[in-house]
Amino acid sequence: MLNAEKKYLHAAPGLVSGVAHAAFDAIRVRRLGLVDYVATYEAMRRFTAERDEATPDELWVLQHPPIFTAGIAGRPEHFPRTSHVPLEHIDRGGQITYHGPGQAIVYTLVDLARRGIKVGAMVTLIEQAVITTLSAHGVRAERKSGAPGVYVDGAKIAALGLRVRRGCCYHGIALNVAMDLGPFATIDPCGYPGLAVTQSSALGIKTGTEELGDALAKCIANLLKQAHDDRR
Fold first, then answer.
1. CATH superfamily of 3-231
2. Which member of 168, 169, 190, 219 is catalytic?
C-alpha cells in the first residue's frame, strides 16, 4: 500500500462542499490499488460513522490480498475445509466469499437516505452495473432470484454484500477478473454448496482488473446519477 493510500485510509471523510445539494450531486471515485482488507474495512466503517449530510458519496476501486470474509449470516459449515488463507468476520449481509488479487472490487459508500434509494434498489443498481459492464464486452450476465450477485451461465462472476447504518451503505461488489479461483473450491461460495464460479478472463474478456474496476465504478456512478435525475 502506498503512503498516500495509508494516509487516506486513516483519515476522516473530507468535503468538497459545505452545501448539501453539492454533496448530493458529487460522487468521488478513489483508486486505491492493492490494499489490506482489515484496514480498508475499518476505514469504511469510520467513513460511514463520521460522515454527515454534506459528505459526498464515494466509490473505492481496489483489490485485496487473499482473504475469506464471512458476513453476519455466516455459518461454519460453509467455511474453508482446509486453507492457509485468513478468514475475517465482518458486518455485511450474506455468507462467506473470497477476495484476492485479480478481482475488481468497488466499495459503495453511499447515502441511500439522501438519494431516496432503498436497499433492495441499491442491490439491483449494483447488479445492473456489472451486467452492463460485461455486456460491453459481449458477455451476457444475469441476476438470480433470491441469490444476490451476478451470474454467467449459472456460474457466479460477482458477489455482492452491503451494510446500512444511519441510512448510509458500505461494502459493495467484487467482480472476478483474472484471479486464482482455487480458494472458492474450499468453501461454499455465498453459502451455496457446489456453486460454480467464473471470471471475465475465462469468458474471453482481455481487459485487466484495474480497467474493469474503473469501468464498473463509472457505471455505478452513472446509474446513481440517473436515479437522481429520474427523481427530479
1. Bira Bifunctional Protein; Domain 2 (3.30.930.10)
2. 190
